[in-house]
């Protein structure tokens, strides 16, 4: 309350406003993957998007980075509309790529198998006309904790954790303002997962990078985000400060989701009973069957 | 004891360390026993040893018995009977357990016919009964559906129905809820508990999730690099874990509603190519001493009923001192 309002705080870094995406399924079915999704993210902020499979969280991530074109709504970074305009030149596309970068769940699939870690980073830098920055490559490798042995290794010679570190280094290469992480630690063993989470928290503190953290794991989201958006079947059912959302959820679905997370004194049967008591929310669409 | 694994060591030719080293583990009838570890720790290999589906060139030593029958020496019809009726396995991905071009009913009927207790007609009736028991509505219609017409949670119920078809004594659940949403996971876990309770089935519950195992299982074994490093009741794991690896896992796992900084375990688990003559965790352990690198881990019984295999435990030191005193009076 006593913090002075800085201009950066006055104007959010990232604004997602009324994002909507409908997919047309075989036959006449349609699936509303995201419906009227809005949130803002300040510079250096961190927001989590949680939900179960089919909730639309990945669709939102892809709309943010520009891999999916929204049917309606806008994504703004520093007030500039990223979603406007159909035809874009190479320069324009690269400029947008420098604003928001993405890290995917499976690092092996998102890395070129032929390139060593060092070549991978050099390629990314040269795309953005920053080639020859040998110092920058070493800086990035050092930042994510990859040593000289891994720098000369190809993805198949690395562990999953090392691959994900490289994917993060590649995303950081262009100094993005926002990093979108789509289940980026879900496939990693816990001891490695915590190393990556720690790395993200450190990078955020040191550089003011803003994070959009998409995950099905509420405990992980609690550790890395300030704000959280809860999605169910394409719709935002609740959003607010992560701490408040996890301790005093207002929505029945959020409560059911929290009750299902295993912890001390947890009983799955009680969690199921609680869920039965929760009224159905969101939208059913097409033939998707839920049990 | 329903499942009794005693000193099981499994070695592959060319590997620097064994897949499993001196693993001892027990599951009683009606009990849910957790087996926790990171990838490559040997959890799935342990389950495979119980079904005896280890690689052909693997050399296994030790004993594995299910209801008193020695699994490692079984042959022919006894082994078939063991795999088809005594033990059932539920894998992580139900979609790869079911043939996508066959109806769900075909999968269940085939299972039931193989038990030898049914003809086609009674098998069909029994299949409807099984689907009803695992909580699927309109079971007669479900039998005619294909796997792609069902959600992951529903398919996992079908796979569980298949596992129950032969009325097994022991269920091996290998990450069987890891791919499911949390709410669906809770439903499946409640179902498995309930079924186990009713039929006195024992379950070995394999997971990478220590919090899940601690919250769900009666007892939990923690594995690292092919060895059991700790064994204790599920509810005592959260606060009374003793092995540095178990405590490290707890410190680096985010816990819902509890905000504390995560303390990652440095380094990474050893691969099969890494030799481990002493304690395999020594290289990552905050409490390791040089002597740990040559100390062969063995379980020490703890006052609270748990067991841990760590040289640095005061109880382990006392046990060693006692043994030395007895040997050199």
UniProtKB/TrEMBL annotation, chain A:
SUPFAM superfamilies: P-loop containing nucleoside triphosphate hydrolases. Residues 14-258 form the ABC transporter domain. This is ABC transporter domain-containing protein. Keywords: ATP-binding, Nucleotide-binding, Transport. It comes from the Bacteria. The keyword Zinc does not apply. The keyword Transport applies. Residues 270-291 are annotated as: Disordered.
From TrEMBL, chain B:
Coiled coil: none annotated. It comes from the Bacteria. Belongs to the ABC transporter superfamily. It is a peripheral membrane protein. This is ABC transporter ATP-binding protein. InterPro entries: AAA+_ATPase, ABC_Ni/Peptide_Import, ABC_transporter-like_ATP-bd, ABC_transporter-like_CS, Oligopep_ABC_C, P-loop_NTPase. One of its GO terms (molecular function) is ATP binding. Residues 3-250 form the ABC transporter domain. SMART domains: AAA. It is found in: Cell membrane. NCBIfam families: oligo_HPY. The lineage of its organism: Bacteria, Bacillati, Actinomycetota, Actinomycetes, Kitasatosporales. Keywords: ATP-binding, Cell membrane, Membrane, Nucleotide-binding, Transport. Gene3D superfamilies: P-loop containing nucleotide triphosphate hydrolases. SUPFAM superfamilies: P-loop containing nucleoside triphosphate hydrolases (SSF52540).
């Amino acid at each position: 309350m006593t913090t002075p309002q800085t201009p950066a705080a006055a104007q959010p870094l990232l604004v997602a406003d009324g994002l909507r995406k409908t997919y047309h399924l075989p036959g006449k079915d349609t699936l509303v993957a995201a419906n009227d999704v809005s949130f803002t993210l300040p510079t250096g902020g961190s927001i989590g998007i949680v939900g179960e499979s089919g909730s639309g969280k990945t669709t939102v991530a892809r709309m943010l980075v520009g891999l999916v074109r929204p049917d309606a709504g806008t994504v703004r970074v520093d007030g500039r509309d990223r979603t406007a305009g159909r035809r874009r030149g190479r320069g324009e596309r690269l400029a947008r790529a420098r604003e928001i970068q993405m890290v995917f769940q499976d690092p092996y699939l998102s890395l070129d198998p032929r390139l060593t870690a060092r070549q991978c980073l050099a390629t990314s830098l040269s795309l953005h006309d920053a080639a020859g920055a040998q110092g920058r490559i070493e800086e990035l490798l050092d930042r994510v904790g990859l040593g000289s042995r891994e720098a000369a290794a190809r993805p198949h010679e690395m562990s999953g954790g090392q691959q994900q570190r490289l994917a993060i280094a590649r995303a950081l290469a262009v100094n993005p303002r926002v990093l979108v992480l789509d289940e980026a630690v879900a496939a990693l063993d816990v001891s490695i997962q915590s190393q990556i989470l720690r790395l993200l928290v450190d990078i955020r503190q040191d550089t003011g990078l803003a994070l959009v953290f998409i995950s099905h794991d509420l405990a992980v989201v609690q550790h890395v985000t300030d704000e959280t958006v809860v999605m169910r079947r394409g719709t935002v059912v609740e959003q607010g400060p992560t701490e408040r959302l996890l301790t005093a959820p207002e929505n029945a679905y959020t409560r059911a989701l929290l009750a299902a997370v295993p912890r001390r004194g947890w009983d799955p049967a009680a969690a199921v009973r609680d869920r039965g008591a929760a009224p159905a929310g969101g939208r059913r669409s097409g033939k998707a069957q839920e049990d | 004891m329903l499942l009794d694994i005693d000193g099981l060591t499994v070695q592959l030719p060319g590997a620097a360390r064994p897949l499993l080293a001196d693993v001892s583990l027990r599951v009683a009838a009606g009990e849910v026993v957790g087996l926790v570890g990171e990838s490559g720790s040997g959890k799935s290999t342990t389950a495979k040893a119980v079904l005896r589906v280890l690689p052909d060139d693997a050399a296994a030593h030790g004993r594995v018995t299910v209801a008193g029958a020695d699994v490692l020496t079984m042959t022919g019809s006894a082994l078939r009977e063991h795999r088809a009726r005594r033990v059932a396995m539920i894998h992580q991905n139900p979609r790869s357990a079911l043939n996508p071009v066959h109806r769900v009913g075909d999968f269940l009927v085939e299972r039931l016919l193989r038990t030898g207790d049914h003809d086609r007609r009674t098998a069909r009736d029994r299949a409807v009964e099984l689907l009803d028991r695992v909580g699927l509505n309109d079971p007669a219609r479900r039998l005619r559906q294909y796997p792609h017409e069902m959600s992951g949670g529903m398919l996992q119920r079908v796979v569980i129905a298949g596992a129950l078809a032969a009325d097994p004594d022991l269920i091996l659940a290998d990450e069987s809820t890891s791919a499911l949403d949390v709410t669906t996971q809770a439903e499946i876990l409640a179902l498995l508990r309930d079924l186990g309770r009713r039929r006195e089935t024992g379950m070995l519950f394999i997971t990478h999730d220590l919090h899940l195992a601690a919250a769900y299982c009666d007892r939990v074994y923690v594995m690292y690099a092919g060895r059991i490093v700790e064994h204790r009741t599920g509810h005592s794991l959260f606060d009374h874990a003793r092995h540095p690896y178990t405590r490290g896992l707890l410190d680096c796992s985010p816990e819902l509603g509890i905000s504390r900084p995560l303390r990652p375990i440095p380094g990474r688990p050893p691969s099969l190519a890494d030799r481990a003559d002493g304690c395999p965790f020594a290289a990552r352990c905050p409490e390791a001493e040089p002597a740990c690198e040559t100390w062969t881990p063995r379980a020490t019984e703890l006052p609270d009923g748990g067991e841990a295999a760590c040289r640095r435990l005061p109880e382990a030191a006392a046990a060693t001192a006692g043994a030395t005193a007895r040997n050199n009076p």
